[in-house]
Amino acid sequence: MRIVILHGWGHSRAQWQVVADMLETDHEVTAFDLPGFGSERAPDPSWGIPEYAAWVEERIHPLGDCVILGHSFGGRIGAYIAAQQSPWLQGLILYGAPCLYRPSVRVLIRNVIGRVGGKLPIPEFIRRHVRGTEENNAMGKGMRSIFRRVVSFDETDLVPRIAVPTLLIWGEHDVEAPMRIARELRELIPESELEVLQDAGHSAHLEQPILFYGMVQRFLARM
User: Fold this and answer.
1) Once rounded to an integer, what is the mean pLDDT over residues 4-15?
2) What backbone torsions phi and psi does residue 5 show, to the nearest 5 degrees?
3) Pick from 180, 181, 178, 174: nearest CA to 202
4) In order of start, what are the domains of the chain with their CATH numbers?
5) Following CA atoms 108, 52, 17, 139 in sequence, which dihedral angle do they give, to the nearest 10 degrees?
6) What CA–CA distance (Å, rounded) separates 38 from 66?
7) Helix and strand numbers, DSSP H then E, in the chain
């Protein structure tokens, strides 16, 4: 079975080398740098999840049947692709993937500050704190509009269309994609199951790579 790994925002395929090496003992593994990360140039500022999904599909289609493993941002892309019910997709692993737009209080405050713009004399250090690391990094790369489009893209109506076996892997203490999103996805996606990595956060594959690999391997063995 071929596994295609889609990394999270601000990451690249390099952060997946350890897990990819373990998976390659039994499977073919392909990991992309998504546009704007790693070796790939930033895309057009108008891009969002559908455009990233089209880019990924162009590269997956020639590979044949596969399972997508998507982390966070990569999971959003993987879920969008799976909802199109492409015949070559055999399974899906959504890992810490906030596919459902359920903004936190911090995000709501950030949105208010964004709307008022320069109308209020809010110091830049406060703006940077409210925006958070990922959005500040996106601004530095000229990808802020893409970032905002990505994080507000709500797939609530799309994920029930996912018709392949789906594994949800979540870190118990994930702050970026809280456990409540995982539980809601479990209810929305028909053929899904949830595995929780105890004492782990949003990048559990870096914190607990062996346990993460074991969860993926068990899922693939049942397919």
Assistant:
1) 96
2) -100, 125
3) 174
4) 2-100+155-222 (3.40.50.1820), 102-152 (no CATH)
5) -50
6) 23
7) 10, 6
